[in-house]
Amino acid sequence: QENEKFVDKLYKERLPMLINSKDTKCALAETLILRYLERIADHAMFMSDAINYIVTGKHKLTNVIDGVPPQHNP
After folding, report:
1. Torsion angle (degrees, nearest 10) of CA 29, 5, 54, 73
2. Distance between CA atoms of 22 and 51, rounded to whole angstroms?
3. Considering 16, 48, 55, 68, which has the largest number of Cβ atoms within 10 A of its Cβ?
4. C-alpha Rg value of the chain to the nearest Å
């Protein structure tokens, strides 16, 4: 999950810089690369959640009690 957050942060930081870039070709290429990296990270998270479900039989959300994450539950 940290890697996904890192890629999302990178995408959000770089996108405004690329919009103002004078080298359109490079800016477009970098934008597409960042977008694809973000999608890859999203898919990796989905796959890890699916594998976790296969191994444990629990969905990520089943660990939440009354809307409170597990670290806050007694």
Report:
1. -170
2. 44
3. 48
4. 18
Write out pLDDT tens, residues 38-71: 888 888 888 988 998 899 988 776 455 555 555 5
Q: Are 35 and 11 in contact (CB under 8 A)?
A: yes
Evaluate the CA torsion angle 64, 39, 31, 3 in order and state its sign. Answer: positive
| Residue 13, amino acid | E
Q: How far apart are CA 26 and CA 37, in angstroms?
A: 16
Question: Is the torsion defined by CA of 21, 15, 17, 37 positive or negative?
Answer: negative
What is the 8-class DSSP label of residue 23?
Answer: -
